[in-house]
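Q: I'm writing a short explainer about 3-hydroxyacyl-[acyl-carrier-protein] dehydratase FabZ for a general audience and would like to include a description of its predicted shape. Could you first generate the structure from this sequence?
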Amino acid sequence: MESPIRFENVDINQILKTLPHRFPFLLIDRVINIREDYSGIGVKNVSFNEPCFQGHFPDRPVFPGVLMIEGMAQTAGVIGIMSVTGTEKPRAVYFLTIDKCKFRKPVLPGDTIEYHMKSIGRRKAMWWFHGDAKVNGVVVAEADVGAMLTD
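A: Of course. Here's the predicted structure. Afterward I'll give you a sentence or two in plain language.
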């Protein structure tokens, strides 16, 4: 049974209030279904207009895997920051670790990536998440990421 939803739809305006990232390095468009078990789904609509496609690769554009990992981390950051309540609400998130990273299929312009993130551990201000990046329900990348929430 799935955990209850705390935040159904975090739009770009709320993401901008939550994360310090801005263009061209804000790599999620919204986060949906943030649950009480600290899971949620980040959504990224990949456009041919992304700056990375100028060099990756001009004749066959492929969304860089490292940017998918960053998208996972940003999704985890939104989940973590929005899940903390009270006076100790963090204002920043710092990427700490990447483990068990695998790239399975290329992501192309026109694809929509869903970053399915679930907390796998927490110690004080440090959080760890497992993420599966999916396009049309197919896993295209996966990784465990760690981050520290701070003010």
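A: For your explainer, you could say: The two ends are 34 Å apart (CA to CA).
Q: Perfect, that's easy to follow.
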